[in-house]
Write a structure and sequence with these properties.
Layout lengths: L5 E12 L2 E13 L4 E5 L6 H8 L8 E10 L2 E2 L5 H7 L4 E4 L3 H4 L6 H12 L4 H14 L5 H4 L9 H13 L5 E5 L7 H18 L2 E5 L3 H7 L2 E6 L2 E7 H6 L4 H8 L49 E4 L2 E3 L5
Parallel strand pairs: 3-8, 3-9, 6-7, 7-8
Antiparallel strand pairs: 1-2, 1-4, 4-5, 9-10, 10-12, 11-12
């Protein structure tokens, strides 16, 4: 098999203040191969978005800090690069689509200015060539009136168009890795489907690997080659998508599956996982899901289970599987 494009080892990102330590990402391992779509799923507060910001070295300062681990991309550990070297990587080799395009786009710059900024930073192009490339990329992502929209401002566009602009910005330098943090949040179902199809087209046309962060298992079923399930800052299950839906093994993953509404079965009350995610400032000694787990044993509260390979390519953090 090919070498991973991105290899994360024991990544830990904490928020540290005088009297508190929040372990947002607490020792995760993750591999992404060229042109692979990896979906990261889990509840809010599980560490999904902070993992993506750690890869990009955009952890909020001054409290946020990557305290341990490696993020190897194309043979280089991104955590050891200078800020100038990292600036050369962002937007060129690795791009990111943020969750809310209205806040991610600069309201006082035109769409064209924002897309050409990426090109002028990373490519040896004139202003005119950069505008032509921006229009070409807007057309590629299905933006109508691209020649006019380059001169318009974010507030003049609908949510769906702003999200397409974000994708055009992220893809204009044809990066090797695209990170998409819940790119379909707040979009209607039709536009969601179009954005996801567009991402598949990106993978096909540019051979781009994608990390897609979502809490929507329907999106995972449609998009993923491989799925990483996160809970309380850790990976609890990592497996190819077909095996995850055919036979999930971790009790948390099973509970997530159980909470999906079924078309075949009519239920008066939808299943929900009891309890809440543990406080990131005071994780328990043992399994972090034990308090909410229907099959937990006394031993689950005594030691943290290792993430181990149950069968080829299927990793699970549970001693009862």
């Amino acid at each position: 098999m090919a070498e991973p494009l991105l290899k994360i080892k024991d990544l830990k990102t904490y928020f540290i203040s005088k009297d508190m330590e929040v372990r947002a990402v607490d020792g995760i391992d993750l591999n992404v191969y060229p042109s692979q779509i990896v979906c990261i799923v889990g509840e809010s507060g599980s560490g999904k978005s902070m993992t993506s910001l750690s890869i990009m070295r955009l952890v909020p300062q001054p409290r946020g800090k990557i305290v341990a681990g490696e993020v190897n991309f194309n043979g280089r550990d991104l955590l050891r690069l200078t800020e100038k070297q990292m600036t050369d990587v962002r937007g060129n080799d690795i791009s990111m689509i943020f969750q809310e395009p209205m806040t991610a786009l600069n309201p006082v710059l035109t769409i064209g200015e924002q897309i050409t900024e990426v090109l002028l930073r990373h490519r040896n192009l004139t202003k005119r060539e950069a505008i032509a490339k921006a229009i070409e990329m807007l057309q590629f992502v299905g933006v109508p009136r691209a020649t006019e929209i380059v001169h318009e401002y974010p507030h003049q566009l609908s949510g769906g168009l702003r999200q397409r602009v974000m994708i055009a910005m992220a893809m204009v330098c044809e990066p090797k890795l695209l990170i998409a943090d819940e790119p379909t949040t707040a979009l209607d179902v039709t536009i969601q489907a179009q954005v996801l199809e567009l991402m598949k087209k990106m993978r096909q046309d540019f051979n781009t690997a994608i990390i897609l962060i979502t809490h929507d298992l329907g999106v995972v079923a449609d998009m993923a080659d491989h799925v990483v399930v996160m809970y309380a800052g850790q990976v609890v299950e990592s497996v190819n998508a077909d095996d995850l839906f055919a036979a999930p093994l971790h009790p948390y993953t099973k509970a997530l599956m159980e909470s999906i509404p079924s078309l075949e079965e009519e239920k008066e009350v939808l299943y929900s996982i009891p309890g809440t995610v543990p406080d990131a400032t005071a994780y328990p000694v043992g399994c972090r899901f034990a308090d909410r787990c229907p099959i937990s044993q006394p031993s689950c509260y005594e030691r943290m289970p290792e993430l181990r390979e149950i069968k080829p390519g299927h990793l699970v953090r549970c001693d009862l599987v």
